[in-house]
């Protein structure tokens, strides 16, 4: 997606408070990172995070399609 779309998605995900993503930018491309920092993380934690990302992305994309 566009940089603006990624920024909107970041605000939505982090604002919900269930997981935390970190933004980065390389060569004017804004992207999001999920850092796995705990040695106690399990695959179910990654799956939960991915489901949360997909949910928020669907919300943002649905809102974008309605506003067009």
From TrEMBL:
What this protein is called in its record is Aromatic-L-amino-acid decarboxylase
Q: Name one GO molecular function term.
A: aromatic-L-amino-acid decarboxylase activity
Q: What InterPro entries does the annotation carry?
A: Aromatic_deC, PyrdxlP-dep_Trfase_small
Signal peptide span per the entry?
none
Top-rank taxon = Eukaryota
From which source organism is this entry? Bracon brevicornis
The Gene Ontology CC terms held by the record are: cytoplasm
Quaternary state and interactors: Homodimer.
Q: Alphabetically list the UniProt keywords.
A: Decarboxylase, Lyase
Which biological process annotations from GO are given for this protein?
Answer: catecholamine metabolic process; serotonin biosynthetic process
């Amino acid at each position: 997606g566009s940089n603006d779309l990624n920024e909107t998605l970041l605000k939505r995900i982090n604002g919900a408070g269930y997981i935390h993503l970190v933004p980065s930018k390389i060569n004017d491309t804004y992207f999001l990172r999920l850092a796995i920092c705990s040695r106690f993380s399990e695959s179910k934690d990654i799956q939960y995070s991915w489901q949360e990302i997909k949910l928020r992305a669907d919300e943002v994309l649905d809102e974008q399609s309605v506003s067009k």
